Amino acid sequence: MHHSPNSDRPTQKHLGDRGLIILIALLSAFVPLSTDLYLPALPSMGDYFGVSATLTNLTLILFFLFFSLGLLFWGPLSDRYGRRPVLLVGLALYIAASAGCVISWDIWHLIAFRILQAVGGSAASAVAMAMVKDVYDGRKRESVLALVQSMVVISPAAAPVLGAFMLPYTSWQGLFAVLALIGVVSMAGALVLQETIPSRYNGTMAQSVRRLGAVLKNPGFASLLIVFSLVSTASLAFVSASSYIYQEGFGLSEQWYSFYFALNAVGLIAGPFLYLWLSRHASRRSIVASGFVVMIGSGVLVCLFGSLGPLAFALTLFPASLMGSAVRPGGAFLMLDQQREDTGSASALINCTGLVFGSAGMVLVFLFGKNLVLGLGAINVAVGVACLLGWGAIGKRGLVRF
């Protein structure tokens, strides 16, 4: 595969540089938007369908599972056929499936449409990070990754608040109608998008998919992938359990739950900006290591004091949210930097593996039964320790140039 220099890559005539960054941020936000908007409605959805919390949670867990599988399909496909065609097809499926969620008449139909929604939405995430690699290089790429991820995590803060305030005026069906509208807005941006890929993979479709294996054989990429995907185990465990902790554990209303959820999301928003500031004064290696140490300490505090009340839980978890988000831009930059080719496949693997580990966290936290606060604290401690050890091993073996 031949790569053109950046100067040869087409500028965005209609979107411009700022519009392209906003579109990439919106596409990257499809996971939190598609889950967090209806988090406040999870308990009431269980009552509506007359099913258990475990069955209702399948609308989350299976979404993440099929979203992950979809990434592995769309990512290599975008290397072969281009980012724009893949994006248009995926968004069309996402919009149709979101409309299907609105008219679901039982939990199983909702789960089926959520699976289709996941497959369509995964196309957006598959091409988003690849587009950053297509267009930007060096420090500019790292800055855009940080900015995009900061914009992305605004959605976990805003989506539950929006969902909670919509519920008194609409039903959970109305929340899925909003997701369909977000899909339509994204489609409008995709229609005016000019192709970003500098050159395409010339092999067959089957060969394109097999490039996933070639990327995984890169030891530097694979080791970084495991370390930074582990972070998602802790963050998605919180997403899965948060409504039950705040509403059923602490007895808060849907509106108060959304505010406390947003408090932790502030840490997610600030993390990438904190990373950019720290990177002017410290090395990437030390920033990431410090982030993992903070996650461990925060997890210990959650175990000790998180059960005292909603504010204590939110404040003790905040450092983990902040630093878990702060390590992501550096991790994403390093992973993309390991691959000169197969950017779509690399992007797909980054997103997919993060979601797989995150889905495991969503299941693990409920193994603690009613002790969800203790479970989240323990998961943060375990993730922090594992990531710190892995990060140290990568440095000692010289697998990656920091």
TrEMBL record:
Domain of life of the organism encoding this protein: Archaea
Matching InterPro entries: Efflux_drug-R_Bcr/CmlA, MFS, MFS_dom, MFS_trans_sf
Statement: the UniProt record of this protein carries the keyword Membrane: yes
Topology relative to the membrane: Multi-pass membrane protein
Main subcellular location of this protein, as a coarse class: membrane
Ranges annotated as spanning the membrane: 20-39, 51-74, 86-105, 111-132, 144-166, 172-193, 220-245, 257-278, 287-307, 313-336, 348-368, 374-394
Domain Major facilitator superfamily (MFS) profile, residue spans: 20-402
Gene3D superfamilies listed in its UniProt record: Multidrug resistance protein D
Keyword Membrane: yes
Protein name: Multidrug effflux MFS transporter
Native organism taxonomy: Archaea, Methanobacteriati, Methanobacteriota, Stenosarchaea group, Methanomicrobia
